[in-house]
Write a structure and sequence with these properties.
Elements (H helix, E strand, L loop, with lengths): L1 E7 L11 H11 L4 E7 L7 H13 L8 E5 L1 H9 L10 E6 L4 H5 L4 E5 L4 H12 L3 E6 L3 H16 L4 E2 L2 E5 L5 E5 L17 E6 L5 H8 L6 E5 L9 H4 L4 E3 L11 E6 L2 H16 L10 E2 L3 E5 H6 L12 E3 L3 H4 L1 H53 L2 E7 L2 E4 L1 H7 L6 E2 H7 L5 H13 L6 E6 L7 E10 L4 E8 L1 H50 L7 H28 L12 E4 H12 L7 E6 L6 E4 L1 H17 L4 E10 L4 E8 L29 H11 L3 E7 L3 E9 L4
Parallel strand pairs: 1-2, 1-3, 3-4, 4-5, 5-14, 6-10, 6-11, 11-12, 12-13, 15-16, 24-26
Antiparallel strand pairs: 7-8, 8-9, 13-15, 17-18, 17-22, 18-19, 20-21, 21-22, 23-25, 26-27, 27-29, 28-29
Helix pairs in contact: 1-9, 16-17, 18-19, 19-20
Length: about 725
C-alpha cells in the first residue's frame, strides 16, 4: 500500500473537487498501485500568503507517523505554497504537480524532487475560439496589478508581440522574456468604448478587475459592451463570478471553474480529468521504480472545450460550433438527437415490415395447412405401402400390451397376438433388458432425446437378432406408438467392416515396416562390399596377397550379411503378428565385436575414429549372431549420422554377479535432449527429420533385444554425445 498526499489549492466545497479523490484512486488502481490517499485543502481564497505557508507547514509537520511516498499538488497556489513553506518534506518527498499555469521557476530549481505538468495559458488560441464562433470581436482581458495578475498580463502581451501587435487599450507596450512590461499612452490609439457595428477585425483591451472604478467596471459588464468577449486569465475572489455578471460571453485560458456554473463559455485548456490521468500515471511510474531525474517538466495537452449550458445561455446554435470542439454538460438526448431520431424511424419501419411479414406468414401457413391436410391423407396410403416393403413395422404400447402390424408377425414367423409386458421382456436378451427399461422410463419423464432403443430380441425361439425401436410417448393418453425394424443385417455388415478394417490396418503396418527398413538395414553391408571392392580394383593401391585375401574375406562376409539382412527384412514384417523367427547359437562375443569393428572402421565419416574396447577374457553368448550384429550395426550407423568429430566406440564388459554382459556403443556426437530421450525407441520417431532413415531402427532393435531377454538403456547429454547399452543374460532359459 502506497501513501499518497494530495494538496488542493481551493476550499473543500469547490465544485471542481467533487469526486476527485475517487478519480485519483481509480487511476492508481488502473496503474496497478494500491493507494492510501489523504487530501489537504489549502483554501487559498480565504488566507493570505503567510497564513497559507504556515497552514501547509503545520499539516506536513503532523504527518510524522504517516510519511507519504509521493505528493500530488494541483493548481498554482498549492504548488507554490508547498515549495515555499520551508518544511523539510518539501525537498525530500517526490512531488508531481499539475494544473500549474505560472510555475515559479526559481523555486523549482531549488526543488529537484518536484516535477510535473505545466498548464501554460495560451491566450491567442483561446481567442481563436471566440473568432471561430463569433467572428471578429472586441476582446476584453480581465487582469489586475497583483503579482499573478502582472504575470498573466505579461504572458498575454508576449503572445501579442509574437503576433506583431505592440499596442493595446490606447497605449503602446514593451515586454521582455520575463513578462515585465511598460505602457506608453498614445491618444491616437484611443477609440470609442461602445461598438455600434461589428468590427472588421479583432482588437484587444484590458479590464482591471481590482483597480477599475465602479462605474467603469459596470460599463464593462453592462449590455452596452456589444460585440465583445471577455477572457478570464486567472481565478480568484475578484474574477470567479465575473463571467456570470458580464453582458457578453466569457472564455478562459485556465480550467479552474470551467463547467462549474461560473459563467465560462469555453477555452483552449487542459481538461481536469487529463490532469489527474497524467499526474497519477507519472506518480505510478515513480512508485514503480522509474528514476525521478528522468522525468522533465512537460506542457499539458489541451483541447477546445465548450460548456453546453453557456451555449444555451448565449443562444449559440450547435452548428456554429466547429466539429473539432468538445462539448461538455450536453444532455444525452441533445448529444444523440440525430441517432435517436434515426433509431425511431428505423424501429417504425421495422415494426411495419414485421407486421407485414407476420400477415404474409399467416396467409402462407393457412394455405400450407390446407395443402398439408391433403398431403397427409395421400401420405398415409403411401406410408402403409412403404413400411410393408421396407420391413418397418408400426406398434403401440397401451394398457400394458404391445400391438404390432400384421406384417410384423409374418416377418417374425410367429402367431399374431398382442404381447403382454412380461412376454415381450422375455423375448429381449437379458443383458439388454435394463437398457430397454431405462429408455422407456426416460421417455416417459422426457429425458430421452431420440427415443431410440437398439436391443437384441428372439421372437421365434431360434436366435437373437438386432431390432431398433423408435417411439414417442403420448403423456395425455398414456401410450407409446412408434416403428420397429430388424437391423440384424446392418449390424453384421458393420462388424464385417470393422474386421476388414483391422485386417487392412495390420497389413498396412506390416508393409510399412518392410518398406521403411529396407534402405536403412542393407546400407552398411552394401557399403562394405562396394568399398572393399573399389580398394581391390584400384590399380594405384598396392595390396599384399594377405591384405587382398582379408578384403575378399570381408566382402564375402558382408555379402552373406547382406543376404541375411534381406531375409531378415522379410521377417520383420512379422513383428506385428509376433511370428518373428530367431536362430540361437553359442558365439564368441569378442570375435563378433571384432567382425563389426573391421566392417565399419573404414566407413567412418572424415574426422571420426571408430574405437573398440573389450576385456581380455572371452565371453560365450547364446544369441542370434546376425540379429545382434544388426542391432550393433544400427547403433553405429545412427552414431555416424550425428557425430561430426571425435570418435565412436564399441565394446563390452562382463558382469559376473549379474551373469550378464553389457555391450556399449558410445559417440561424441550432438547428443539427445533429455525431453526426447524417452521417445527414441518409439516407432517412426526421428530426432532429426532431415536425417536419413525412417525412425523404425531403434524400435526394431528393442524388439530384438527383448526377444533375447535383455534390455537397452540410454545415457545422453546434449552436445557431448550418447551411450547405448545392451544388457544381455549369459543364459537364456
Amino acid at each position: 500500500m502506497k501513501r499518497i498526499l494530495v494538496i488542493q489549492s481551493y476550499e473543500p466545497e469547490y465544485d471542481g473537487y467533487h469526486g476527485t479523490e475517487h478519480k485519483i484512486r481509480n487511476e492508481f488502481r488502473r496503474n496497478h498501485i494500491k493507494a492510501d490517499i489523504r487530501t489537504f485543502y489549502l483554501d487559498c481564497e480565504t488566507y493570505l500568503d503567510k497564513e497559507e505557508k504556515a497552514r501547509i507547514y503545520n499539516y506536513l509537520d503532523s504527518l510524522s507517523a504517516w510519511r507519504p511516498d509521493i505528493i500530488l499538488t494541483y493548481d498554482d497556489q498549492a504548488c507554490y505554497s508547498f515549495m515555499n513553506c520551508d518544511h523539510p518534506l518539501s525537498k525530500q518527498i517526490p512531488t508531481i504537480f499539475a494544473g500549474v499555469n505560472y510555475p515559479n521557476w526559481s523555486l523549482l530549481k531549488q526543488h529537484p524532487n518536484v516535477t510535473g505538468y505545466w498548464d501554460r495559458p495560451e491566450f491567442l488560441k483561446t481567442i481563436k475560439m471566440a473568432e471561430d464562433i463569433f467572428g471578429p470581436m472586441k476582446i476584453n482581458i480581465w487582469t489586475d496589478e497583483t503579482p499573478l495578475g502582472k504575470q498573466t498580463t505579461g504572458s498575454f502581451l508576449n503572445e501579442l508581440k509574437e503576433k506583431g501587435i505592440n499596442y493595446i487599450s490606447g497605449a503602446y507596450f514593451t515586454v521582455d522574456k520575463n513578462n515585465t512590461y511598460t505602457f506608453t499612452a498614445d491618444s491616437s490609439l484611443y477609440g470609442s468604448k461602445t461598438l455600434t457595428t461589428k468590427p472588421q477585425k479583432t482588437f484587444y483591451t484590458m479590464v482591471d478587475g481590482r483597480s477599475t472604478k465602479s462605474v467603469q467596471l459596470l460599463w464593462a459588464l453592462s449590455g452596452l459592451a456589444r460585440y465583445s468577449v471577455f477572457v478570464q486569465s486567472k481565478r480568484d475572489f475578484t474574477s470567479k463570478r465575473l463571467g456570470l455578471f458580464a453582458s457578453a460571453p466569457t472564455i478562459t485560458v485556465i480550467n479552474e471553474g470551467f463547467g462549474l456554473k461560473e459563467g465560462l463559455l469555453g477555452g483552449y485548456i487542459t481538461p481536469y480529468n487529463t490532469q489527474i490521468e497524467l499526474s497519477v500515471k507519472t506518480a505510478s511510474e515513480v512508485l514503480s521504480g522509474k528514476p525521478f531525474s528522468n522525468i522533465p517538466i512537460t506542457e499539458s495537452p489541451k483541447e477546445y472545450l465548450i460548456d453546453w449550458e453557456e451555449m444555451v445561455r448565449w443562444n449559440i446554435p450547435l452548428n456554429q460550433i466547429p466539429k473539432n470542439y468538445q462539448i461538455i454538460n450536453m444532455p444525452f438526448f441533445e448529444r444523440y438527437s440525430s441517432h435517436i431520431i434515426l433509431f425511431g424511424i428505423c424501429t417504425g419501419i421495422a415494426v411495419i415490415l414485421l407486421i407485414s411479414y407476420l400477415f404474409h406468414l399467416y396467409l402462407r401457413e393457412n394455405r400450407n395447412k390446407q395443402q398439408a391436410q391433403e398431403d397427409l391423407r395421400k401420405g398415409e396410403q403411401f406410408l402403409s405401402l412403404a413400411l410393408a416393403g421396407g420391413k418397418v413395422f408400426a406398434f403401440q404400447l397401451r394398457d400394458k400390451k404391445l400391438y404390432f402390424d400384421k406384417d410384423f408377425y409374418i416377418a417374425a414367423g410367429i402367431k399374431e397376438k398382442p404381447f403382454s409386458i412380461e412376454e415381450f421382456q422375455n423375448c429381449i436378451l437379458p443383458q439388454d433388458l435394463p437398457i430397454f427399461n431405462q429408455n422407456i422410463e426416460m421417455a416417459i419423464s422426457g429425458d430421452l432425446e431420440n427415443n431410440i432403443s437398439q436391443i437384441q430380441c428372439m421372437f421365434d425361439n431360434k436366435e437373437y437378432q438386432w431390432w431398433e425401436f423408435r417411439y414417442t410417448y403420448n403423456k395425455e393418453n398414456d401410450f407409446f406408438s412408434g416403428l420397429c425394424l430388424n437391423i440384424q443385417q446392418e449390424k453384421e455388415a458393420k462388424q464385417e467392416l470393422i474386421f476388414a478394417r483391422q485386417k487392412a490396418e495390420e497389413s498396412d503396418k506390416m508393409k510399412s515396416a518392410f518398406l521403411a527398413n529396407m534402405s536403412h538395414e542393407i546400407r552398411t553391408p552394401l557399403n562394405a562390399i562396394v568399398g572393399f571392392s573399389n580398394i581391390i580394383a584400384e590399380e594405384e593401391v598396392e595390396l599384399s596377397a594377405e591384405e587382398r585375401n582379408d578384403f575378399l574375406k570381408l566382402i564375402n562376409t558382408n555379402s552373406d550379411l547382406l543376404l541375411k539382412l534381406i531375409n531378415d527384412i522379410l521377417d520383420l514384417s512379422r513383428i506385428e503378428s509376433g511370428r518373428m523367427e530367431f536362430s540361437f547359437g553359442e558365439y564368441n562375443l569378442s570375435d563378433l565385436m571384432n567382425d563389426v569393428y573391421q566392417t565399419h572402421k573404414f566407413l567412418m565419416p572424415e574426422g571420426v575414429e571408430l574405437k573398440i574396447e573389450k576385456p581380455s577374457e572371452a565371453v560365450m553368448l547364446n544369441t542370434d549372431k546376425h540379429r545382434l550384429t544388426q542391432v550393433i550395426t544400427n547403433f553405429i550407423n545412427n552414431a555416424s549420422k550425428f557425430t561430426k568429430s571425435g570418435y565412436i566406440k564399441i565394446g563390452y564388459n562382463y558382469n559376473p554377479r549379474r551373469m550378464a554382459v553389457e555391450i556399449i556403443v558410445e559417440d561424441t556426437g550432438i547428443g539427445i535432449p533429455k525431453e526426447k530421450q524417452k521417445a527414441v525407441f518409439e516407432r517412426f520417431n526421428k530426432l532429426d527429420e532431415f536425417a536419413q532413415g525412417t525412425g523404425l531402427g531403434l524400435s526394431i532393435c528393442q524388439v530384438i533385444i527383448h526377444r533375447f531377454g535383455g534390455e537397452i538403456t540410454l545415457q545422453s547429454e546434449e552436445n557431448k554425445g550418447s551411450r547405448f547399452t545392451i544388457s544381455l543374460p549369459l543364459h537364456i532359459s
